[in-house]
Amino acid sequence: MSRSEPILIGIDLGGTNVRAGAVSPQGELLNWSETLIEARRGPQAGVERIAALVNTVAAGRQILAIGIGATGPIDRERGAIQNPYTLPTWEDVDILGPLSQRFGVPAILENDADAAALGEWWRGAGQGVKRLAMVTVGTGIGYALVLDGKIYRGTGGWHPEGGHMRLDPNGPLCYCGGNGCWESLAAGPAIARDLQAAARQQPTRMLDLAGGVIEKIDAAVMAEAARLGDALALEWTARLGKIYGLGVANIILLVLPDSIVLGGGVMRSFDLFEASMRATAAQTVPIVPAGQVKILAAQLGQQAGVLGAARAALDLYQEKGHHD
Predict the structure, then answer these.
(1) Cβ-contact 58, 9 below 8 angstroms
(2) How do residues 286-321 score in pLDDT, each as one tens digit?
(3) Which of 27, 134, 192, 235 is the most buried (most CB within 10 A)?
(4) What mean pLDDT comes out for the span 25-29?
(5) What is the pLDDT of residues 175-188, one digit of tens each?
(6) Crossing angle of helices 188-199/219-227, nearest 10°?
(7) Who's near 53: CB < 8 A, 6+ residues apart?
(8) What CATH number does residue 185 fall under?
(9) Phi/psi at 144 (5° precision)
């Protein structure tokens, strides 16, 4: 692709970092950059930071449309971010208006889990399948469904929150107000909480790997220790695999997709959870053809959200009557 050909911009806005990419209409990532969002400095400073990133990755090329995948909650119809939880001070912030006006192009806002799923469907592990479910395990657990290349929308256009399905009614309290939801059991902060409690009860190499600071034990430390054969870390990867397996089983029962793709930071260690996850899912769904559902590790890593946001921008551009 020559520098004269137009591009799409995909933006992945998280609680800590914002990433942007220049993407060809065929889905090739041409340029990429990221920076800290520093949400506490306020949304206006954040929008300026995002605009500067767009200019950097566009590098003078013509922009067709801009897509943003943002950590929720969002109001996608109004193009507003309503997330003071992971983006402090960002309460009902119009993000599309300023960017659309500045660059003179249409822009669209999506939930970050939806954007990641769309990216994996377009260019990653779920490429081209008719029914794709994606689970993103990081600070939270995001869930999204792509049907025939389109993001599934709930009533009123809202995003389903599969990460808050109840897996253990007697489990820990989640910020959502429920007990024992998937996120409160097996997202990054929950893993760190439970590992640190376990490490106080029995010896583990995780403590050495965390520099002797028990509060630094997290999912990444667990994975490293498990690969070294640490008994406690292996016990927890198997236990977490079962929890992921229960969530996957519920998705299979409710949706019966062609593929379920698991991504996010915690799932960089997909191989450690895979055996117990698959076994649990198989045991839990005997009455549907679960064996036909592919359970896959995501392929795009941090690029999934950027590519998915760019794909949403492409769809918007084409919906507006452009078919270049």
Answers:
(1) yes
(2) 777 778 899 999 999 989 999 999 999 999 999 887
(3) 134
(4) 95
(5) 889 999 999 999 99
(6) 60
(7) 11, 18, 19, 20, 33, 34, 35
(8) 3.30.420.40
(9) -150, 155
Structural tokens at position 274: 């895979």
Q: Are 179 and 240 in contact (CB under 8 A)?
A: no
- 45 and 155 part of one domain: no
Strand partners of residue 7: 63
How far apart (Å, rounded) are the C-alpha atoms in residues 138 and 38? 19
Amino acid letter, 126: G
**pLDDT the model gives residue 66:** 97
**Residues 19, 35: Cα–Cα separation, whole Å:** 7
Rounded to whole angstroms, how far apart are CA atoms 23 and 32? 9
Burial 244-272 (b: 16+ CB within 10 A, else e): bbbbbbbbbeebebebbbbbbbbbbbbeb
Based on the fold, state whether residues 163 and 188 are members of the same structural domain: yes
Beta bridge partners of 36: 17
Range of the domain at 256: 125-297
Q: How many domains does one find in the chain?
A: 2
